[in-house]
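Sample A.
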Amino acid sequence: MRKTQLAHAVWCACALQLVLTAAPGTALAQEWQPQLADAGARKPVDPIRINLPQLQANVLQRLALELDDVDVTATVVRQGNQIVFTPPQPLSFGDHQLRLVEHGADGSITERGLWKISVRKTAAFREASLQGNVTINLVRRVADKNLVSPVPDKSQANGAAQLQGVIADGNWKITAQLDLIANSQITQMPRGAGHGHSDVGNFLFTGETGPVIAKAGHHSVGPDSLIMQGFTRRGVSAGLQSNDKAHSATAFSLRSQDVVGAQEGFGVGDSEN
């Protein structure tokens, strides 16, 4: 009995000594947990900061940071009780996975933190962009000899613009494509005189949310068939599509004749056409 009590006392003393050897204020390896400093939406080049408890130097040396399963530890710097990762290249818009692991001396790997970070243009939208391509042509005649009547204007100008925009967030997305045309010679406009020097060409607005897709403007519906082949007209459509986009069902109303100009709207106002 005395030997058992003595052995128990020796074991308790050893355990107490092991606990006391841990540095004051230092988290034990088996219980510490990091915290992501900013869990909100971020921009593509914003630094990612992770708060750490007070750790021993040998523990810090065993930490590794992964972004989308790629080790980025070499680009991480330590600032006080934080480790900071600044993307060397802008991150793509959308969700990314961040993982902090600790490599044990025995070759084991312990996951210390796992977070999902969202890269967005703004807090309101995950993605918002607008692109444009503008072409302007200026012409001035320097001689008037042997001109055929009616004589065109001495100075002429024409141009075109192609605009593209995207707004997306979560599982919904809105895209827009718009062509604008202009000409100082009204008679050379698609609709001729009486409709101004500028007008709208082809355009398309598309909205997607989950399996639902809706379109308004110049587009085709469904694959080519004996009924419709290369049939692209102005109109509206709405339908459902499978995740792989291999199957779809669409209801549509398209103009039978091609139309140009803003006054025609979405091309569904004339029931006879």
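Sample B.
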Amino acid sequence: MTRAIGEAQRRIQAARGEVRGWRARAGDAARRIAEMDRRLAETRAEAAALAGRPEQAAQAVAALAAEAADARVADAAARDAERAGEAAAAAARLRQTQAIEALAVVREARATAAAEADHAARERTALSAQAGERFGGPAAVLPEKAGFAAAEVGPAADEGRAHDRLAAERERLGAVNLVAERELAEIEGERGRTVAERAELGEAVARLRQSIHSLNREGRQRLVAAFEAVDGHFRRLFTTLFAGGEAHLALIDADDPLEAGLEIMAQPPGKRLGSLTLLSGGEQALTAVALVFALFLTSPAPICVLDEVDAPLDDANIERFCDLLDRMAAETATRYLIVTHNAVTMSRMHRLFGVTMVERGVSQLVSVDLAAATRVVS
């Protein structure tokens, strides 16, 4: 019970404290309301005082705008007047410059004319003196003294210049060459010999060109005939070596046979027709052998040396190569020397030549006649 009473008293005290706080707040609120009422009255009074200011400001702005427009017009007029003044000043300066230049030209012309007049006066005095010394009288009486009209005589300066010019031309001509006629005859004779030699050289050049054309024509004919013969043999030998296929020779890069290059076109069995560079090493070797033998069939030679041509060939192709070699030896009078290390090729030869070393550092040439050895064995 006592605890409840104490708790109630504390609550009462707390409520009293809150009442005092609210009363204090109410006093502050009353003071603030009074302050706000005062400020509201002041604001209303100030608003009433400023009610007419916008119209005044608008009138002032309009007046200032009109003044600014007038100022812009005046500024544009002033700028136009300034540009006109500058143009007029530039024109005046140009006229002044032209006048100064014209004055300088006139002054220079005047000085030149004065110098020429002075020179003419001195020259006239000198000519008068010379005339008096050479012709015995002044220049004024010389026409009558010489017997022609004074109107036919030009100005003294022109006559003097003409005299000087003729004298200079005479000096340039030099002394009279008394042997000129003989020298002219010698030059004419030498010219005639030169013309004759030139004609002979022209004829020689024409004959030489004709000979060259004839040689070129005959060379083309012989080259084409030899090419066709070699091509025919090459086609046949290629087919024999490869047991089929086809090949031919072609002139390329120029229409003139004398300037054209040679291309070997080959088509072994089972392949496409193409250049020699597209074939394998063995095929290239057989093709080259066919071309060499075609050349020997066309124009045989006493000796043919084949160095290791069978190296890239297999056994079957070596047999074909040896068979063709036998045919070539029988059809032509050419002696074939074969440099080889292949046993099959060596077994098909008529005679073998080799080098053996019986002792260290001592080489000995060995020769074997296989045909005789075969007869002895048999």
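B remarks: Residues 308 and 341 are 8 Å apart (CA to CA). The mean pLDDT is 81.
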